[in-house]
């Protein structure tokens, strides 16, 4: 088993890590820091597998720092707290999302935009303020500043709530920021995967008319099951023609390389296209597509800590969870391969506590 060189931290931890560009995850012993005054040590129960975990593990974005323990969609219970912690108690159910730190003092942090802080610390493959590497939720425990720990509301099941820490926040936050939550407006959701299926449910809870846009016509029945009002097969030229100028907003969750033009054509004048997916290659854009219709293209990066907690409360109120397939940690590489083939409906979640208890 691989060993981490960061042995100065006193809390022993165990998880699965990628050690090279193959992305193959292997058992990995490492250490977490001892609780500082505002720290919370969390026993990880479940952790979702995000598509970005696949990109990072296989270094498809080019900035992997190995060894890497992925995972930023955690639900667990508080195991211990620092002496200054005020928000949480031992035994409470909590979550950790994509970020575990920021400077807390810049204008962005003060304006509920800590997810854009220049000094943001991501949950894994990042460097914390003490100079150590961050390791994610494919592990038995994690230590997090209480200001970046989320409370999981009653009514949300721990396993199906885990993907909300990324997929829920990543879709809820731009809907709120860009005003894409006005009841009666028409929203297109491009791509029906881990992000898209949660976006459909959140949008319907906002009272929007929702159309799923996909190049897989077999997803039509799934779109309606999730609550969508209509479906567009974007390989069908007749359907694309009929959809021109019909939508107020489009939320694109597509992570593959694709053409922006068909989506922009679907927007009304003043329409907004917000992209969430992160293709590994640049997308092409004709400037006429946005100028002639006064259309807007924007983006959004996860969600702030405040938005993420608001999203969790919203999802609990409206009974929104992710559709998941539970897997053991020992099967994580098979799950990654299936994710690369889009062979999942719609989010893998690792049963961390039960899996790792068999190995430690």
Report on the structure:
This protein is an alpha/beta fold and 360 residues long. The protein has twelve helices and 18 strands. It has helices at 51-57, 107-110, 158-161, 167-177, 194-206, 220-225, 237-243, 261-266, 288-291, 305-317, 332-340, 352-356, and strands at residues 2-3, 11-18, 25-32, 39-49, 74-81, 93-96, 99-101, 121-122, 141-145, 150-151, 186-190, 209-214, 230-233, 247-252, 267-275, 296-299, 324-327, 347-351. Strands 4, 5, 6, 9, 10, 17 and 18 form a seven-stranded mixed sheet that branches. Helix 6 (220-225) links the parallel strand 12 and strand 13 (230-233). Helix 4 (167-177) packs across helix 5 (194-206) and helix 4 crosses helix 10 (305-317). The protein is globular. The protein starts with a strand and ends with a helix.
Keywords, separated by commas or semicolons:
six-stranded parallel sheet, disordered N terminus, alpha/beta, 360 residues, 12 helices, globular, 18 strands, single chain
Write a brief structural summary:
The protein is 25% helix and 27% strand.
Helix content: 10-25%
Q: Structural class of the helices, strands and pairings? A: alpha/beta
Q: List low-confidence stretches.
A: 1-7
Mean pLDDT: 94
Largest sheet: 7 strands, mixed
**Cα-based radius of gyration, to the nearest Å:** 20 Å
Number of helices: 12
Order of helices and strands: EEEEHEEEHEEEHHEHEHEHEHEHEHEHEH
Oligomer: single chain
Number of distinct beta strands: 18
As a percent range, the share of strand residues is: 25-35%
Question: What is the general shape?
Answer: globular
Distance between the termini: 12 Å
